[in-house]
């Protein structure tokens, strides 16, 4: 839980950019942060959002590492090129975004990396925000080996024009925690209702938290959409959920 630490305990971490073989054996970058000492540690894959493979993602990775997680945040935009996160995200949009199968291949490469690492305990979760939340749900349904999934306001789970992550709900293989704002329109409360009904229909292990007075991106303290009370409550709920399924 936030700020629930022992001031006398040792704390240390290392964080760096590494190279992985992603989907199709393409070389991709990833941000890897992990605690020093007292291992092995649970693993976590943080899928970046549409704002890009940005500073917020790196900071979120280190924050989870401070709470005991080895975190890989793959640069799913590696093939677009290099530049500022804003520039690369814009180029990705112009190209129609990153294909789901490619992103899932990059996630699988990150999962394999964590599973094989002597620094981890063999359990790995996946988390994402915005488009990353959508990808996290899809990964939990289609990439074998996850022990927990956190979907933070992932929109586009239902696609009326073609294949969508919701189509794979029956194959969901781990518990899911969902965090949503009731003022959000992507996903809207109605879309969250549909997803919840689908999870119930398939007898899946899930917990949704929906927050009044909050819309999209409530954890992004650098943007007006940030909601301090809802953000900290949901962060602690996500932390407790991951601890339950990955640390035990």
Question: What this model shows, in words?
Answer:
The protein has 248 residues and is an alpha/beta fold. It is 33% helix and 23% strand. It is built from 6 helices and 8 strands, in the order E-E-E-H-E-H-H-E-H-E-E-H-E-H. The protein has an 8-stranded mixed beta sheet with strand order 1-2-4-3-5-6-7-8, with helices on both faces. Helix 1 (55-66) links the parallel strand 3 and strand 4 (70-74). The longest helix has 19 residues, at 228-246. The chain is globular, with a radius of gyration of 17 Å. The two termini are 15 Å apart.
Please report which band the strand proportion falls in: under 5%, 5-15%, 15-25%, 25-35%, 35-45% or over 45%: 15-25%
Computed Rg:
17 Å
| Poorly predicted ranges | none
Strand order of the largest sheet: 1-2-4-3-5-6-7-8
Structural class: alpha/beta
Q: What's the helix count?
A: 6
Helix content: 25-40%
> Care to count the β-strands?
8
Run of helices and strands: EEEHEHHEHEEHEH
pLDDT averaged over residues: 96
Main sheet: strands, sense, barrel: 8 strands, mixed
Q: How far do the termini sit from each other?
A: 15 Å
Q: Quick one: overall form? A: globular
Please sum up the structure shown:
This protein has 248 residues and is an alpha/beta fold. The protein has six helices and eight strands, in the order βββαβααβαββαβα. Helix content is 33%, strand content 23%.
What are the key terms here?
248 residues, 23% strand, alpha/beta, 33% helix, eight-stranded mixed beta sheet
SSE diagram, text form:
Blueprint: E1 13-21, E2 27-35, E3 41-47, H1 55-66, E4 70-74, H2 85-94, H3 100-116, E5 120-129, H4 131-142, E6 148-152, E7 176-181, H5 189-201, E8 206-211, H6 228-246
Parallel strand pairs: 3-4, 3-5, 5-6, 6-7, 7-8
Antiparallel strand pairs: 1-2, 2-4
């Amino acid at each position: 839980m936030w700020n629930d630490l022992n001031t006398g305990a040792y704390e240390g971490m290392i964080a760096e950019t590494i190279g992985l073989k992603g989907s199709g054996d393409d070389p991709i970058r990833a941000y890897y942060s992990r605690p020093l000492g007292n291992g092995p540690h649970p693993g976590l894959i943080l899928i970046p959002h549409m704002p890009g493979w940005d500073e917020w993602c790196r900071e979120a990775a280190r924050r989870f590492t401070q709470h005991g997680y080895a975190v890989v945040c793959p640069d799913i935009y590696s093939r677009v090129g290099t530049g500022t996160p804003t520039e690369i995200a814009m180029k990705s949009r112009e190209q129609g975004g990153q294909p789901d199968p490619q992103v899932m291949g990059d996630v699988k490469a990150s999962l394999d990396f964590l599973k094989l690492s002597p620094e981890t305990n063999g359990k790995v979760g996946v988390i994402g925000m915005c488009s990353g939340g959508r990808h996290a749900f899809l990964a939990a349904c289609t990439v074998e080996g996850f022990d927990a999934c956190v979907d933070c306001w992932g929109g586009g789970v239902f696609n009326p024009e073609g294949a969508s992550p919701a189509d794979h709900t029956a194959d969901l293989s781990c518990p899911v925690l969902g965090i949503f704002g009731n003022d959000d329109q992507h996903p809207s409360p109605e879309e969250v209702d549909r997803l919840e009904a689908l999870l119930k229909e398939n007898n899946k292990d899930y917990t949704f938290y929906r927050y009044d007075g909050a819309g999209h991106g409530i954890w992004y303290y650098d943007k007006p959409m940030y909601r301090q009370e809802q953000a900290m409550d949901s962060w602690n709920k996500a932390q407790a959920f991951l601890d339950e399924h990955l640390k035990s």
